[in-house]
Amino acid sequence: MENKYMVIYQEMVKQIEQREYKPNNFLPSENELTTIYNTSRETIRKALTLLAQNGYIQKIRGKGSLVIDRSKFDFPVSGLVSFKEVAEKIGQKPVTIVQSCELMDAPADICKQLKMKQTEQVWKINRIRSFSGSKIILDKDYLLEKHVPYMSREIAQDSIYAFLEKELGLTISFAKKEIIVEEPTEEDRLLLDLDGFSNIVVIKNYVYLDDASLFQYTESRHRPDKFRFVDFARRSH
């Protein structure tokens, strides 16, 4: 026979997912839940602990159990994955809008970011990511033309990394990442739905090939309400 706390946990998961308990609202108190489920406080605490462990609630001392907004998307900080791979993993179907895709002489600031000569050219690709009708990410990619001789809107619409690895045979090895919060630029406000938001989360990626060649610089500019940036850390001894 299934443990009672597990039955309660599963029922409460269903209620949260069906929004009977709405995000950013508190669950009934432990005393109220013992009455609702006709069980002991210890059983309720076990069910709540499981809800917290699986990301459904956050326990706040002195206040209770807050329902977490699970519409946020988990973006791995340490991993090196494409946007398409992240979207597929979380079961989302976003829309990608290729705002620009052009071969150009790199501006001075991009030359500095990519440690490149001003005589070299880069592919500049701007892509807007839209979820449920809201434009919430602006990806600005710069790829060195000497490593990426060809690019198109069709490729950018699908997956740049799939093209680089499967068609060009490049081995993407590692990246250095910086995460900052700043005020939205005029471009951010023009291209994204930022009404009511005064900050934007910017992830800067410096991406290297297996021979340690820096070939890509990216700024992913995220509306802050829809994302959690997650990592896994292990303590060294």
TrEMBL record:
InterPro entries: Bact_HTH_transcr_reg (IPR050679), Chorismate_lyase_/UTRA_dom_sf (IPR028978), TreR (IPR012770), Tscrpt_reg_HTH_GntR (IPR000524), UTRA (IPR011663), WH-like_DNA-bd_sf (IPR036388), WH_DNA-bd_sf (IPR036390)
PROSITE patterns: HTH_GNTR
Keywords for this protein: DNA-binding, Transcription, Transcription regulation
The UniProt record lists the keyword Cell division: no
HTH gntR-type domain: residues covered: 2-70
Domain of life, per lineage: Bacteria
Keyword Kinase: no
SMART domains on file: HTH_GNTR, UTRA
UniProt protein name: Trehalose operon repressor
Organism encoding this protein: Gracilibacillus xinjiangensis
